[in-house]
Amino acid sequence: MLRRALGGIAVLLTLTSCSGNTDIVDPQDLNYVTAIGIDYVDGKYVGYYQMLDFASVAKTEPNANDQSPMIWVGHGEGSTLNDAMFQIYKTSQSMIVWSHMTAVIFGEGAIRHGLEHVFDSLPRYHEIRLTPWVYGTKDKMEDILMMNGFFRQSALNTILHEPKSIFIQNSQLEPVQLFELMRSAFEPGETAYIPAVSINKTQWKDQKGKEEKPYVSGAYFIKEKRLQSLVPIKQLQGMRWLAQESNRISLLVPSEDKTDVQIIFLDPKSSISVRPGPIPTFEVEIQTKGYLSSRQDEKYMSLSQLEAASNRKIEEEVRQMVEQSVRTKTDLLNLEHAMYKKSQSGVESAWERYLAVRHEAGCGNQGQCSNQPFRRSQKSHDRRSQPVIV
To answer: What does the pLDDT read at residue 375?
Structure first.
């Protein structure tokens, strides 16, 4: 009897060991999409899909003979975005995982066509999060997705996947995540923007020759989910003073072409307020402090001279944004949205005419013995505190 019971247990254990979870897939056997490109060409959606070799990405101490991590870029076409995504399943060889995607790049064709279908399709699949960084481009999508980082690092070490660190060091155009773009696109009166990414082919090279790297070249501005304009980065200098998370700004005084001093400003704070009335006016207030980084000649020898010159330059950059808004018929400073929040209806076109700028820029100096940044209150009075017709 005991022998029969033991035999039954042995058979049961054998059957149990043979009936394991056969549907489990090893992580190394999966394909991980890290970025997607979306374009619209000839009435069809075209999707581009970047996949990395995570085995090489995970190496912490690469050998001198190691090559940059391999990148694969596939593409598919379809009448809908989801159809274009389904096309790559036919040749993917193994299961595709979308949960590691950290960048979405829109082609200019997709931006011009409108992004409402994209906003509706992407969040419906449970693996796709709303946190990837978003970009627009008019360059060749495959070239954008094929670029690696420095020192045999992967594409994950480029601004496509990690733009925040470089923005902290050099605050130009604040990066945008997918959920922020979707929120701004549906907000009444708000003009959303998508950073434009291009390929720099001249600034870096290695032993083999020139090394191509991505960089932010401007921004696509969208209102009511439709493209308003594409503005180069040099014409968007005023936006850095208004970005919520700006951290470190380099200001060349009096200009880039003729620089006497370079001042580094830290952690600027800004606000836009609306003065109600038959003709509403806007007041942009900027507060910041900084230190002298370099000097070319003996101009601006006192702190008061530095502050006055800095104030003039900051105001000039903000006012140039207003002039650019008028030229492109695009609300680059989101003044209409500020009016909407103040319930100023019926004056949608007045933002491009009336603006007052208030600014407080304090300067210090920095050398081997770093002095504390000196801040002096210098509020704009006389004409700058009054509504100014641009």
So the answer is: 44
For 164-177, write each residue's pLDDT tens digit.
999 999 999 999 99
Q: What is the pLDDT of residues 178-194, one digit of tens each?
A: 999 999 998 888 999 99
Q: Locate the domains of the chain by residue range.
A: 27-237, 247-390
Would you mind telling me the total number of residues written for the chain in this entry?
390
How many Å apart are CA 187 and CA 382, to the nearest integer? 36
Residue 71 has phi, psi (to 5 degrees) of: -125, 135
| pLDDT 10s digits, 7-22 | 555 544 444 445 455 5
Indicate the CATH number for domain 247-390.
3.30.300.210
103-107 and 31-41 strand pairing: parallel
Residue that is written with structure tokens 């434009």 in the block:
196
Contacts of 122 (CB under 8 A, 6+ apart): 81, 104, 128, 178
pLDDT score at 341: 77
Compute the distance between CA of residue 366 and CA of residue 355 in angstroms, rounded to an integer. Answer: 34
Per-residue pLDDT, averaged over 300-311, amounts to 84
Rounded Cα gap, residues 112 and 310, in angstroms: 38
Per residue in 282-303, pLDDT (tens digit) is 889 999 999 988 888 777 778 8
CA gap 289, 90 in Å, rounded? 57
* Residue 106 near residue 39 (C-beta atoms within 8 A): yes
Please state, in angstroms and as integers, the Cα–Cα distance from residue 301 to each residue in 231, 258, 322, 358, following that order: 36, 17, 32, 24
Classified as helix, coil or strand, 131 is: coil
Find the helix or strand (DSSP H, E) in which 109 lies: helix 108-113
Distances in whole angstroms, Cα of residue 35 to Cα of each of 201, 238, 359: 22, 30, 40
279 near 355, Cβ under 8 Å?
Answer: no
- Predicted TM-score of the model (pTM): 0.82
